[in-house]
Every structure is written in C-alpha cells, then in structure tokens.
Amino acid sequence: MLPLVIPRHINSLRHISAVGIVFVIYFVVMIIIHSGMHGLSENAKNLHVTGRTTDEGIHLFGTGNRALDGLGVFMFAFLCQVNSFEVYWDMSDRSASRFTLCSAIAMLLCLIVYGSTAVFGYLDFGNRATVSAPLLYNPVKEPEVMVAYIGLLVKLCASFPLISMATRNSLYHSVGWDPDKLPFWKRCIVIVNAPLLHCSSRPVV
C-alpha cells in the first residue's frame, strides 16, 4: 500500500480504483448467484416481520438494541467526504454541478452494492450473517470466492491511500508546506515516518 500513497495527486489512483470497483461488483454478483444456488430458496419460505435474534428464519425488521448494530456500518460506508476536496481539484472539467452529479452517481452505486450485499447475503445465510460477508464463504472449496478475496485485497490497497492522502495533505498544510511544490524525497520521508511515529506514540499494554 505504501507506494500508492506517494503520488502527489489523488487522480493517480484512478486506474487501480477502477479495477477495485470492478472486483467489488464481481463480489456482489457472486453473492447474488451464491444465494440463488444455496440458501435463498429455503430462507425465502421462512420470512417473519420481526423476531428475536435466536429465532430461525429471516426477519424483515430488527428489534431492541440489535436493530442499531448496522447503523454504524452504514454511516462508515457512506463516509466519503474526507476526499471531496482532493477529488474536486483533480477533476479535468471541474464545476459544482458536475461534482454533484458525480457524487450522486457514486452514492447510488454504493447504495446498490451495499443493499444487494445485505439482502442476498442475509437471504443466503440467515442468522449466520452477523459477521463480515467474506467470512461466510470458503475460498478454498469455492474458487470464485478466492477471486473475490483477491479483488477485495486490491480494493483495500486502493482505499487506504485515498484516506492517507487526505491525512497527508492536511499535515502538509498544518506545517505550511504546499503539497504541489513539495519535493519527492521529502514526501517519501514523511510518508514512511508518519506510521512509525503513530505506532511509537501508542502506549504499550
């Protein structure tokens, strides 16, 4: 992941990000197909409006504190405003209306991806779907899942620099450095030493 943080502009990650998005869409399609071939037909017959977490079947609505478990997940999933300024300034033909349109399309894609994953993953595994979706599959026995695992790894390698660049640029501005004029060697020193400084500042338990 480290080499991907070094480039000066966020648009340098557009190619690997596009590859990662393709793999994410592949993973969602795989979830839908896997659900149709395994648990969907059986779990669809056992639908309930509400129910306790220990009850069998599919519950359309959660109750109690458990109903709020997914709130943090959705809040984090749509937390993309951190990179808004970097993305805007790297647009080739930037304007507020064009940026709004691109953001709306991206959020719609996220909604489709997250919604499809949640619905079909739940219909496939039922009450077992309480952990991260990739953990519900066996990549050793299912080669298509292994491909999805590799794709998600690529997506993580693209996502980490997106967040790191926003953090890095904010640090540059806090000490009066211009990110566009900073020499390459100085960027490398900052990027390599920032994680070491963060780790060394954490208390040892």
From TrEMBL:
It comes from the Eukaryota. One of its GO terms (cellular component) is membrane. It is found in: Membrane. GO terms for molecular function: L-amino acid transmembrane transporter activity. Keywords: Membrane, Transmembrane, Transmembrane helix. The keyword Transmembrane applies. Its main location: membrane. It is a multi-pass membrane protein. InterPro entries: AA_transpt_TM. The chain crosses the membrane at residues 12-33, 70-89, 101-125, 145-163. It holds the Pfam family Aa_trans. The keyword Transmembrane applies. Residues 2-176 form the Amino acid transporter transmembrane domain. PANTHER family: ACID TRANSPORTER 1, PUTATIVE-RELATED, AMINO ACID TRANSPORTER. This is Transmembrane amino acid transporter protein. The lineage of its organism: Eukaryota, Discoba, Euglenozoa, Kinetoplastea, Metakinetoplastina.
